[in-house]
Amino acid sequence: MGVTIKQVAALSGVSTATVSKYLNGVKLKEKNKISVENAIRELGFKANTIARNLRTNKSMTVGILIPELDNIFSTKIISYVENELTPHGYSTIICDYRSNPELEKQKLAFLLDKMVDGLVVMPDKLKNKDIKDLKVPIVFIDRIINDSSESAVLIDNKKATYNATEFLIGNGHRRIGIICGNSDIYTAEERRKGYTEAMVANNIFVDENMVLHGRYDVQTGYTLTQKLMQGQRRPTAIIATNNDITTGSIIALHDMGYTVPNDVSFIGFDNEELSRAMRPELSVVLQPLEEIGKNVAKIILDKMNYNSAPNSYVMLEPIFLSKGSVKRVVPEN
Amino acid sequence: MGVTIKQVAALSGVSTATVSKYLNGVKLKEKNKISVENAIRELGFKANTIARNLRTNKSMTVGILIPELDNIFSTKIISYVENELTPHGYSTIICDYRSNPELEKQKLAFLLDKMVDGLVVMPDKLKNKDIKDLKVPIVFIDRIINDSSESAVLIDNKKATYNATEFLIGNGHRRIGIICGNSDIYTAEERRKGYTEAMVANNIFVDENMVLHGRYDVQTGYTLTQKLMQGQRRPTAIIATNNDITTGSIIALHDMGYTVPNDVSFIGFDNEELSRAMRPELSVVLQPLEEIGKNVAKIILDKMNYNSAPNSYVMLEPIFLSKGSVKRVVPEN
DNA sequence: CTGTTAGCGCATTCAA
DNA sequence: TTGAATGCGCTAACAG
Q: What is the pLDDT of residue B208?
């Protein structure tokens, strides 16, 4: 369908091999170089990458697999990753699996089909066996897979909620509700642990009615906040553990007529923009998105370029932004 | 480096042609079919799609090109498009061009390189000449390209802001500020026109200081809102014309100590979640994202399957959600 | 520095 | 039904 190297060769009076070399940066005799260039221009030639990939077994593309597309947290990180990859000549193919375990595997296979040279994955239900004998380098973001020692970049999730919880405790709170993602997600479980550890460290009883699990979405934040606030003994503070849960939780509180922090103190996660828009602004745990992205890019580039690059596991510090959504209360004890 | 059709053929005692036929759904003699299936299983054979694409000139994938990845408006639509495409056997490759005209063309070329069978594009600076002789079907979302009669799905943008503006006028507002995207973006210009037309239709002078243009991002919303509110004669109402501008605008108002709607009335765009989180909730113009996605999918599928499918241009109705962010005022003059 | 030759993995004639 | 042969467009030896 398109113009081929053969036609270029014919028109310029050299062999296809020579044209190919030209395309791959090999120096030609000045005269040949010029006639090849002319032919390319005249014919409007564009190399067929599919054929090239077939031949070289490389595609100069990195596959990116995330659970949801409409999740700013992951898309922002990806933007940063892309930013670092592009200057090195790599393109990216982004796929989402709608938090669906079936799709998760299918899309992984799809990316492999496209002969990606590397993979950046935010996994959900993926198991070690699904990835352990892939021939392409892989880096996990945000979450890791049990028993896998593949490279990963994430934040210290336990610390994130530990700090948030301690902050609340320091302000007199004892009944602290927390809304977590499903406990089979690594991140969710870590965040839950951070909370529990902080409570325990401060000799506070952990009421299981205060620890709720659901999906990482607005609806979950909404519903579980209602549940927390409708219980017999309400929390005096709530921690939302992801971007969408933060949104849903705030909407629910407002819909129920509660004011933050007068009726209930609040610490959000990730949702910097909502935090800034509210008055008082929300105290939030933020992740260093740009740093995450840069680390991911560095690791995957290293791995693609030096097969021997060892796995690296990077754990970054969460950022706690203290704003006006936490009120000091008298401890109930 | 994987298992090839050749090895399968060898192991099952038939020719590669026969294996290929099996893979493509051609009926084989029962005995052959079984041995081929066994061989495939034993060897763990997986057809190499790159080779297949090279041969067939098809990839069963649709390329999606959007300006920004961290823009929920586009990613939500894409989710819906994907949802409709998957059951038909099509996968998607998503690329963003970071609102960069250079990248916009590059990524388009990248997708073409991947031999996508169809294209869904939210264009920015793309010109008709860039796409007029592509051999793959294309559908535009949200924005169209001048002098191009390609298929497109969008909302009636002019009406969206016309209605919002009329609503404000009906509530006594005369000095109405509006923050628009860059005027070379189709959508931005339409929205600006809707505003102007409503003003003119109501015999209200259009003060050019009230009509500001910038990027479709939070920073723009923030800065231009400051500008509007710092002027000598402040607006009594502000219209933000996209998701991020809405966010930035609200943050700016709050940072300056203004309350909505007491100090200034406000109508946002797209940002349903922020709208729901605020108290009073924000009045907003919403787009029917799911409907947009479904229309896009339908059109691109038709075009990929019947080359003759005519171009279609779908214009959907915007939704105006009236909440508490608009206050009735006494008209100034 | 250039051309010849071979083949990546698959799908598709055309005969048989 | 099947198989032998051919080639999609390109790159990679190797020899010249």
A: 95
In this structure, is residue A324 part of a structural domain? no
Residues B140 and B182 in one domain: no
**A279 and A293 belong to one structural domain:** no
Domain assignment of residue B131, yes or no:
yes
State whether A49 and B114 contact (CB < 8 Å). yes
Which residues of chain B are under the pLDDT cut of 70? Answer: 1, 308, 332-333
Check which CATH number belongs to the domain holding B47 and give it.
1.10.260
One domain for residues A161 and A146: no
For residue A239, the one-letter residue type is I
**DSSP category for residue B159:** H
Q: Looking at the structure, do residues A103 and A162 belong to the same domain, yes or no?
A: no
Please give the distance of CA A228 from its chain centroid, rounded to a whole number. 28
> If DSSP codes are grouped into helix, strand and coil, which group holds residue A116?
coil
Q: How far is A78 from chain B (nearest CA, A)?
A: 8
Query: Which residues of chain A register pLDDT less than 70?
Result: 1, 308, 332-333
Query: What pLDDT, on the 0 to 100 scale, is given for residue A333?
Result: 56
Query: Which domain covers residue A150, as residue numbers?
Result: 59-155+288-317
How far, in Å, CA of A245 to CA of B197, rounded? 40
10 Å Cβ neighbour count for A26? 10
Q: Quick one: tokens of B169?
A: 């006028």
Q: Pick from B40, B55, B70: which residue ends a domain?
A: B55
Residues A141 and A34 in one domain: no
CA distance B120 to A96: 17
* Residue A184 within any structural domain of the chain: yes
Looking at residue B204, its amino acid is I
Residue A314's identity, in one-letter code, is V
Which residue's entry shows tokens 């002098």?
B147
Minimum Cα–Cα distance from A273: chain B residue: B247
Cβ contact B93–A96 (<8 Å): no
Longest C-alpha distance within chain B, in Å? 92
B chain contacts of residue A91, beta-carbon cutoff 8 Å: 95, 107, 110
Asked if the C-beta of B114 comes within 8 angstroms of chain A's C-beta atoms, the answer is: yes
Shared domain for B43 and B73, answered yes or no, is: no
Amino acid at B100: N
Taking the model in full, what pTM does it have?
Answer: 0.89
**Which tens digit of pLDDT belongs to each residue from B29-77?**
999 999 999 999 999 998 998 899 889 888 888 999 999 988 889 999 9
The protein residue nearest nucleotide D9, judged by CA to C1', is: A51
- Domain match, A257 and A225 both: yes
Q: What is the pLDDT of residue A1?
A: 61
Shortest CB distance from B279 goes to which of A76, A95, A254? A254
DSSP lists the bridge partners of residue A121 as A65, A140
The reply to whether A26 has its C-beta less than 7 Å from any atom of strand C is yes
Number of domains in chain A: 3
Whether B211 and B179 share a structural domain: yes
For residue A327, being part of any structural domain is answered with: no
Phi-psi region of A66 (alpha: psi -120 to 50; beta: other; left: phi over 0): beta
Q: Which residue is nearest to nucleotide C12 (CA to C1')?
A: B17
Q: Which residue has the tokens 């979405």?
A: A217
**Cα A226 to Cα A231: distance, rounded to the nearest angstrom:** 9
Name residue, tokens 């016309």: B162
Distance to chain B for A45, nearest Cα, Å = 13
Q: Closest nucleotide to residue B52 (Cα to C1')?
A: C10
Position of tokens 């586009």?
B74
Cβ–Cβ pairs < 8 A, chains A and B: 109
**Nearest Cα to Cα of residue A61 among A300, A296, A308, A310:** A300
CA B79 to chain centroid: 10
Sign of CA dihedral B275, B281, B285, B286: positive
